[in-house]
Amino acid sequence: MDAAAVARGRTLTRTSLASSSGLAAALGSTDVLFVPRQNTDEATMTTVASFWHDPLVAFVAAGGVVVVLTGGAVWSLYGYEWRIVAAPDLFSLPAAAWLGGLTNPVIVEIVDATDPIAAGVLSPFPTLAGTAACFPGSSGGRLVARTAGTMLCPVVRHLVR
Description:
With about 160 residues, this protein is an alpha+beta fold. It is built from 3 helices and 8 strands. It is about 20% helix and about 20% strand.
């Protein structure tokens, strides 16, 4: 992200929140909210999503961009970050299904190389073993990446309200 910002003459500022109460104020001067992978369980992410709901609805309605990286492994309790945006008035996302396994990477192909999310990503590429989240039945927005081969399961969608 740093290299992409520098190449475009942009400034990237990272802000960590100590609590969910500071989100609305932080978003007041923000263009993009980036939520990296969190190492926590489903109940915690559901709680975070409920606290963040109103500030995120206002942020997205004002033109803000939310990027959530989610992932997990079949052996892990982690990978519920998508719950942050799978809320009423934001986006309808089905539950994720984990792909791969302890030793099996999932091959992912870029479907829409023109999407900014795919900029600089080689296609096809292997994920780390067991770290791809599939969203079966998901629709809407633009499909950016999916599993390769016969399964063709969406793993990245660019959703726009």
